Amino acid sequence: MMQHKSHALVIGGSLTGLLMARILANHFDLVTIVERDVYPDQPMPRKGVPHSRFPHTLMLRGQQIFEQLFPGLRAELIGRGAIELDSMQDLIFFTSAGLAARAPSDLGDFFQ
């Protein structure tokens, strides 16, 4: 079990850095994030995050963890235009055995 400390430093304000800072906030009086980029006012790619131009998905377990740490985040993201999809039906997975079968899943039921 981690003892309560006074100050934590997170280097990098990526999604991972921000998530780490949120978790550390449960154990430290102060959490400082050091980020070299300036956060834009509107959603847009940042120079220090070259992969930010590519589409990303947040899988189910990640969604559940984010919702625990940030209650209401899912609804806010959807309200701001995030697209919900059923990854088993809406995405194509290519494996060493070929294309994976696509079929509807009940994974979305975890949020209802």
Automatic annotation (TrEMBL):
<protein>
    <submittedName>
        <fullName>Uncharacterized protein</fullName>
    </submittedName>
</protein>
<dbReference type="InterPro" id="IPR036188">
    <property type="entry name" value="FAD/NAD-bd_sf"/>
</dbReference>
